[in-house]
Specification:
Length: 297
C-alpha cells in the first residue's frame, strides 16, 4: 500500500511548488481525479476529455495528451511494486508562474502536477447513503460551470457543514434553488424509464462518470434527461444515486432535510442502481487505458 502520496511536478518527483505559482495564488488551473486498478486507468478517455475541455474553456495552451500520458506512465513505473494496488491518480494543471496580478502571462508555461495516493480502504463497501440538505450554496458562473477548476471553496464549506452534522455527504443547491449535485459527486434521478441529471450550465462539475453514463443510457434502457432539478422532483423520484470517479455509482437510501424531516426512496430502486453500477464498472474496465502497455511503447 502507498503509505503517503507521491508527487511529480513537470516530470520530476518533488512536493515543492513555486510559491508564485498562479494555481496557489488564484486557483488558476484545473484538475481531474481518477482510479487506477492493476495498471488500468479506468474511464481514462473521459478524464482526457475533461482536461482538454478545461484547457479550451480557461484559455490555456493546448494540452499534449500523448506527452501527458507519457509522464503519467513514467511516474507510475517509478512506484514499483506499489503499482499493483488500486491507486488514486490526481492530475492538476496550473497556468504556472508569471503575469501581473490577475492578468495571465503571455505566453504562459503551465505547471503539470501528477499525484499518486492509495485508494480508500472501503472502496468496494459503500452502503446506500443518507444525505443532508446542505445549506451551503453553490456559486453561479456560466463561464466556469462544468469545469473542475481549482477554486473549490463551495465544496470545502459544504464538507465543513457536513462534518459538524455527522453526514458523509449532502445535496447542494445554487442561488436559484436548483438542486445541482452532492458535495463531491454528480446527482442522478430514476423515474420510470428516465435517467435525469441536473443541468450544469450555471453551477456544478461535469463528472467523468456522468460523461460515460450519457453515452451508456440507451444501452441501459433509459432516456437521458438533462434539465433543471427542483426539490419536488428529487422527492418524487423512484430512486437516487451519486457518481464520482473513485467510488463509481453510489445509491442513496434517504434524504435528511433541513426541517428535520426524512425521505426514504423505494428499496426496489436499489436493484436498478446496482445494475447500472455493474454495467458501468464493466464498461470502464473494458475501455481502460493500460499504463503498463503504454510504458513499453
Amino acid at each position: 500500500m502507498l503509505a503517503s502520496p507521491r508527487v511529480w511536478i513537470n516530470g520530476s518527483e518533488t512536493s515543492f511548488l513555486n510559491v508564485f505559482d498562479r494555481g496557489l495564488s488564484y486557483g488558476d488551473g484545473f484538475f481531474t481525479t481518477a482510479l487506477v486498478r492493476n495498471g488500468a486507468w479506468l474511464n481514462g478517455s473521459a478524464h482526457l476529455w475533461r482536461l482538454q475541455q478545461s484547457t479550451e474553456k480557461l484559455h490555456f495552451p493546448a494540452l499534449d495528451s500523448a506527452d501527458l500520458l507519457k509522464q503519467i506512465c513514467a511516474s507510475y513505473a517509478q512506484l514499483g511494486e506499489l503499482n499493483t494496488h488500486s491507486l488514486v491518480l490526481k492530475i492538476m494543471v496550473t497556468r504556472g508562474v508569471g503575469g501581473r496580478g490577475y492578468q495571465p502571462p503571455e505566453p504562459s508555461q503551465p505547471t503539470l502536477i501528477i499525484q499518486w495516493s492509495a485508494a480508500p480502504s472501503d472502496l468496494n463497501a459503500t452502503p446506500p447513503l443518507t444525505l443532508w440538505e446542505c445549506q451551503t450554496p453553490l456559486s453561479l458562473n456560466t463561464a466556469t460551470a462544468g469545469i473542475k477548476h481549482l477554486n473549490r471553496l463551495d465544496n470545502v464549506l459544504a464538507k465543513n457543514e457536513l462534518a459538524h452534522l455527522g453526514f458523509s455527504d449532502g445535496l447542494m443547491c445554487n442561488a436559484r434553488q436548483d438542486v445541482i449535485c452532492s458535495s463531491q459527486a454528480n446527482l442522478f434521478l430514476l423515474r420510470g424509464d428516465e435517467l435525469t441529471t441536473p443541468l450544469l450550465h450555471e453551477s456544478g462539475v461535469h463528472g467523468t462518470v456522468r460523461y460515460a453514463l450519457e453515452q451508456l443510457s440507451v444501452q441501459l434502457g433509459y432516456r437521458w434527461r438533462e434539465q433543471p432539478v427542483q426539490w419536488a422532483q428529487v422527492l418524487e423520484a423512484d430512486g437516487l444515486f451519486l457518481s464520482n470517479a473513485i467510488r463509481g455509482i453510489v445509491p442513496v437510501a434517504a434524504l435528511h432535510m433541513a426541517d428535520q424531516s426524512e425521505h426514504h426512496f423505494a428499496s426496489e430502486s436499489l436493484l436498478d442502481i446496482a445494475r447500472i453500477g455493474a454495467y458501468f464498472d464493466d464498461y470502464q474496465s473494458a475501455t481502460a487505458i493500460s499504463l503498463v502497455n503504454e510504458i513499453g511503447r
